[in-house]
Amino acid sequence: MDTPDYGGAWGDSTRTNSRPASQRSGKSSRTARSHTSERNPDEVSPLLARPQGDEHEEGGDDEEHATATTSLLRSLSSGSSSGKKDDDKRPFWKKRWPSIVALVILVIAVVFIMLGFLATEGIEEYAMQAADFKPTKLSLDSLTDTGVRVQVEGYFSMDASKVEKQSVRNLGRFGTWIAREVETGPTEVYVHLPDYDMVRVGTAKVPGIKVNIRNGHTTHVSFFAHLEPGRFDKLRNVANDWMDGRLGQIRLKGKADVPLRSGLIRLGSQTIVESFTFQGDKLPGVPRYNITRLNLREQREGRKGMGADVSIMVTNDFPVQLTIPSVAVDVLVDGCLESDKHIMVGTAETAQLQVEPKRDVEVNVTGRVDTLPEALTETCPGSSKSPLDALLGDYMHGQDAKLYVQCCNFPDPETPAWAHNLLKDITVPIPLPGHEMGKLIRNFSLADVHFDLPDPFAEPGTPDAAPKISAVVKVDINIPNEMNFPLNVDRVKADADIFYHGKLLGTLDLKKWQDANSTRIDAHGSDGPSLLVQSDVQKAPINIKDDDLLSEVVQALILGRKGVTMKVKAAVSVKVDTPMGGFAVREIPAEGVVPVKPIGSGNGNGSGGAHNISSLAPKIGNLSIVDTSRTSITLQASVNITNPTNYSATVPYLNINILVNKTVVGQAVAKDVYVYPGNNTNLLVTAVWDPYTHSGAKGKKIGRQLLSQYISGCNVSLTLQAHNGTIPTQPALGAILSRFPIILPAPHLSTPKDPGELPPDEGDPPDDGKTHFIRSATMHLLTSTALFTLASPFSSTTMYITTLNATAFYDGQPSGKILYELPFAVPPGLSETPRLPVDWSIGSVGYDAIRKALGGTLRLSAFAEVGIRIGAWREQVWYRGGSIGASVRL
């Protein structure tokens, strides 16, 4: 009959391993008994005398000593060695602990019996090397009140070719040929642990067995044995040492008195003492397993809590057959510290299992969690995490989490009490293979984004000095198909890192819990179910980490046409409400992208150039003067802009320099401004015109030139540029924005039309659409005076002309000159000057043209040096006007 290969013959499997002297205690004891029997004939003597000359070879042969037990255990453990890396992953080992203990005891018993067959001094060495036992079946027949009844089947044979020494081989073949068969009587084998104060592992009661011991003959062996475990408390200590990894090796010592007979000849009783050492890596491991089904649900029958249904396929490489009764265990997790007591979270129970030799076993487990203990969800001292956070965090970051299963209760009342007593209080660590949860969150996004610039009086470097963001945070969380129970998120917080081109730009601080709500989204197509969590976050600080990178972002927003995309990586924490109670799940990894639209398209070619942000479409109106000093004018204006982004912002304070030809001539200040997406009208801005204070004499000269061009109706532009003090609490941000100056056309003068204004004559230049300071004039020839209609650029401020030195021209030729040094007022809107004396240019072409136009009109041009006073501010400007309609009177 073909038999399975379980690691080779017993002799082969052990002969290649050298055994230390500590493992040869059995040999030494037999040698001692042999010498004692010569002195005391009443002691039990060996069947055959051992030649004294062989004693010098005993040690070497003993190192190659092979036993059936070693081979059997190795054959058992070889099947599980491939799964050794999965040690302690399931509580199934605990369920098999009684059978494993029983099998160890049984196999040791078989070894002693086989040794007894051939344990005569002359052929003992032959027996050790030639004996071969191949087990084919080891089955748990039944549980008794004191132990287990086990059936053993296998094949026993003698193979002389395995014996190394020819003299021993010849002697053994001759002796076994004569004896033919050997039979043992009923035997009790006692197994102890020498390293644990000789605690008894158990006792095996084995019936008589007959085998053929001739070379090459095979005997089928089948018998039932009764196994009784030893002291439970000591055995639990051994089991705990093994499961905690403290058991580097285990040494067993067995003893048996084996009665022998060959045919009708009784050979007396042979006392056998033997030691076996198993290294830790040779001990049987927990079988490999695969979770084939997992369903998490509410408990049935309306009970509060959560239930779990799990199906596990366990690889069975052992040639064992047994029935495992229904088992219930407690499931525990680590506390805050390793020294803390484990925290119980729920229970699990299996149905009765039928294990067949070399056949995988399907284990169905039903779990239950009624409620989560406070010790599991409370934060640990000196930490922001709870034991539950640590467990889930390890799991979701791909690291092995650790559960503990504490044995055992047996729901079946027919299960013997000794099984519970043996396994109770044994705690088995179960590694829960980590699962990288980077895709647990399907999407992370921000909507209705609003930025708050910091308060100008905040202390730099403090949270109040950081820009803040308010937004609706949306987190789309994937829900595994196995989670079939209600789940609601009511609070959320996060720590988010913002990246641009793979570099860290800054962090988004959402450390405070925010109210949230969640909506379950059913599976659709290839997408599984998910949970959409939304939270309205208010004023979360943004901490910029890389100013140069921020400069790149700003440049892309100002100069680019496609905008920028920033990546957000967040550790999201949520507070959830489940059937087993509410708890927090912290630091779930999440990723998302936030696209930002460009502010406008520039026409410059690099940082430092001025750019026209056309998409902002700024317009300035309602210009008024609110204050003056000797060198400055404070103006107030309404500004209309278009915000092309989807974001809004609150600006408590913003200060921007006003430049002309790269020279600072003033500053614009905005306070408490709220900017919406789209059109924004009537934003109140204050500007201080003070060229001398900012840039000295050079600034004063440039400012005078700009004002002169402005009141003359020329196209003039101002440059707005940020600086270190633009946002006082964020000087770095202001410095970055300073690289992107903005060119803004000066606002046109807004003045009412003069109903009496003369229409243009044929040949006059076309109307340029601009408003002019001098709208019309009336010349009086007899009195040599002129009266002018003036258009003030201000809606509520009276301006004074302190001096006037003007010359009128016709077709480029001078017509007359006005020199007037008495101040007069120019109120808002249209007004007339006093009659101003004119010194006519008699005989000139210009004067002749005026004289010929008596009673009619003509168009003149003028150039004037004008002294202006507004409040305390004084300035000397020039004015150039063309195509002034003039009426000529006597």
Description of the structure:
- The chain is of the alpha+beta class.
- The protein folds into five domains: 10-282, no CATH class; 289-432, Immunoglobulin-like (Sandwich); 441-595, no CATH class; 614-745, Immunoglobulin-like; 774-889, Immunoglobulin-like (Sandwich).
- The protein is built from 15 helices and 43 strands.
- The strands form four sheets. Strands 19, 20, 22, 23, 24, 25, 26, 27, 28, 29, 30, 31, 32 and 33 form a 14-stranded mixed sheet that branches. Strands 1, 2, 3, 4, 5, 6, 7, 8, 9, 12 and 15 form an eleven-stranded mixed sheet that branches.
- A hairpin with an 8-residue loop joins strand 23 (503-521) and strand 24 (530-544).
- The longest helix is centred in the N-terminal third of the chain and has 27 residues, at 92-118.
- The termini are far apart.
Task: Give the helices and strands, then pairings.
Layout (H helix, E strand, L loop, with lengths): L9 H6 L9 H15 L15 H9 L4 H14 L10 H27 L5 H7 E13 L4 E11 L7 H14 L1 E4 L2 E7 L5 E8 L3 E3 L5 E12 L2 H12 L5 E14 L2 E15 L9 E10 L7 E9 L5 E5 L2 E7 L9 E8 L2 E3 L5 E9 L4 H4 L9 H10 L4 E9 L7 H7 L3 E6 L8 E12 L15 E11 L4 E2 L3 E13 L2 E19 L8 E15 L2 H13 L4 E15 L2 E16 L22 E10 L4 E11 L4 E13 L2 E13 L2 E12 L1 H21 L5 E5 L9 H7 L4 E4 L28 E7 L4 E7 L7 E12 L2 E8 L3 E3 L3 E3 L3 E2 L1 E2 L4 H8 L4 E14 L2 E17 L1
Parallel strand pairs: 1-12, 10-21, 19-29, 34-43
Antiparallel strand pairs: 1-2, 2-7, 3-6, 3-8, 4-5, 4-8, 5-7, 8-9, 10-11, 11-16, 12-15, 13-14, 13-17, 14-16, 17-18, 19-20, 20-24, 22-23, 22-25, 23-24, 25-26, 27-28, 28-31, 29-30, 29-32, 30-31, 32-33, 34-35, 35-39, 35-40, 36-37, 36-38, 36-42, 37-41, 42-43
Helix pairs in contact: 4-5, 6-7, 8-11, 12-14
